[in-house]
TrEMBL record:
GO biological process, one term: L-valine transmembrane transport
Signal peptide annotation: none
Domain of life: Bacteria
Protein name per its UniProtKB record: AzlC family ABC transporter permease
Native source organism of the sequence: Mangrovicoccus algicola
Any one GO cellular component localisation term in the record: plasma membrane
Topology class, membrane: Multi-pass membrane protein
The keyword Transcription regulation belongs to this UniProt entry's keyword annotation: no
Any one Pfam family match given in the protein's UniProt record, by short name: AzlC
The keyword DNA-binding is assigned to this record: no
Subcellular location, record wording: Cell membrane
Protein family: Belongs to the AzlC family.
Keyword set, alphabetical order: Cell membrane, Membrane, Transmembrane, Transmembrane helix, Transport
Residues annotated as transmembrane: 21-39, 51-70, 77-98, 140-157, 218-236
Length: 243
């Protein structure tokens, strides 16, 4: 018997809607990916190595973290561990998406996991929360639309940066894209006191621990922020229960 949640809706239309909803993020993805291509070549990687890293990892923040640590002569294990910590947010993204996409076939889930990027998650989860009436098929179609716009741009402009990075004027500072991207992603998701506390604590801790070697301040800031957010959520629950 066919699952009615899979038979209703218009996944094709949802796909193109997701494609359009993620379109504004291309304004950030283009310079961000070009910057990675430039930085990777400056760090000594050739074009093939740069593209291999972009395609295999497909996570800009962790790629920049690993490159920076390797340039600072940090041990490879430290670079890998730092990149893993930066990418742990993807595990949280996955957990948040399970109620919406966990019904998809294994192969589809594997593809969605590989292609998951911050922009696709932020747009999709906001839409799912605002429109709980979406069918299962529409949710899958929508998410695939979000991913299928962002990822090709990431690949293509990483290649452009790797090939012609030395021709980009130094006055054209592409590094503005990273903070703008994460501000645009995180700001709409700060919907509770626990979110706000975690965000503020992460900023304060990153500043406090910035002098630690090999960017280990990132580890400290992430752990501190997670503990602060979790404790705030527990305190709020106890307060509501007592009330």
């Amino acid at each position: 018997m066919t699952d009615p949640g899979l038979s209703r809706g218009q996944p094709g239309r949802a796909f193109w809607r997701g494609y359009r909803d993620c379109a504004p993020f291309t304004l950030i993805v283009v310079p961000f990916s070009m910057l990675f291509g430039v930085v990777a070549r400056d760090a000594g990687l050739d074009v093939l190595q740069t593209m291999s890293m972009a395609v295999l990892v497909i996570a800009g923040a962790s790629q920049f973290t690993a490159l920076a640590l390797l340039q600072d002569q940090a041990p490879v294990l430290v670079a890998l561990a730092a990149a893993l910590v930066v990418n742990l947010r993807m595990a949280m993204y996955s957990a948040a998406l399970v109620p919406h996409l966990g019904h998809a076939p294994l192969g589809m889930r594997a593809l969605m996991a590989y292609l998951m990027v911050d922009q696709a998650f932020a747009v999709a989860v906001r839409t799912y929360e605002d429109e709980p009436q979406m069918s299962r098929a529409e949710k899958v179609g929508y998410y695939m639309g979000c991913m299928m716009l962002i990822c090709p741009f990431w690949y293509a402009f990483t290649l452009v940066g790797a090939l012609v990075g030395n021709l980009i004027p130094a006055s054209l500072e592409l590094d503005f894209a990273a903070p703008v991207c994460f501000i645009a992603l995180s700001a709409p998701l700060l919907r509770s006191a626990a979110h706000m506390v975690a965000a503020c604590v992460s900023v304060a801790a990153a500043i406090l621990f910035h002098a630690l070697p090999w960017n280990l301040g990132l580890f400290a800031a992430a752990l501190t922020a997670m503990v602060a957010g979790a404790q705030t959520e527990l305190w709020l629950r106890r307060r509501r229960a007592a009330a």
